[in-house]
Amino acid sequence: MRIKVNFMITDARGVPVPAKTLFRDLKVGEYWVLKGKRLVNSQSVYVVGALPPDGEYLILATDKNPVTALEDYKKRQSIETLFQCLKGRGHNFEDTHMTFPDRIDKQIALPAIAFSRCHATGEQCHSQKPIKIKKHRRKAVSIFRPGLDHIGRILHNISELYHEFCKNLKIILGPLILMNSHDTS
Q1: pTM of the entire structure?
Q2: Cα–Cα distance between 50 and 70 in angstroms, integer?
Q3: What's the pLDDT tens digit per position in 31-67?
């Protein structure tokens, strides 16, 4: 669970202090795992802090392995982003009012595949031409956006970019084709 920088955490002596105080000596790109469990809101948990390049502290409380907490949080964040996109940011999943499980599976699976492909394409675009960082130290657009735009350009110019369309289609359908080939036994 991510906690705010002003949240009270016990220090090594058991004295409650603001979370940021415990990580004030972190340098950009560093992370620390505090030794032992600490009290956070009367719960005994491990605490991990990081200072990403955007300069905004990332402080996590976990009852699991603190060494993997940051990686686990990154995965969770990707899943949260997917659900935000499937819900309120365009797909409006709640508006479908579906109740049949097999239809719900398809309603989630297809957009999730499309989202994943746009995100992966966005990462490729970002590696070739980095996304601009705004004054508040956040990206001007998400990683997803350049991927969506790039795939949109391919689809709008499919006659000129047919080879690139086929390459993307193989990447998307590859796992499905492999799954289906195993089902024929």
Answers
A1: 0.53
A2: 8
A3: 999 999 999 988 999 999 999 887 889 999 999 888 8
* Residue spans per domain, the chain: 2-73, 98-183
Cβ neighbors of 33 (< 8 A, separation 6 or more) are 46, 47, 48, 66, 67, 69
User: What are the start-end ranges of the E strands in the chain?
Assistant: 2-3, 8-10, 16-18, 31-33, 38-40, 43-50, 58-62
- Per-residue pLDDT reduced to its tens digit, 6-31: 999 999 999 999 999 999 999 998 99
Is residue 114 within 8 A of residue 108, CB to CB? The reply is no
Neighbouring C-beta atoms of residue 109, cutoff 10 Å: 10
d(CA 66, CA 50): 12
CB 3 within 8 A of CB 40: yes
Strongest mean pLDDT among 55-59, 158-162, 164-168: 55-59
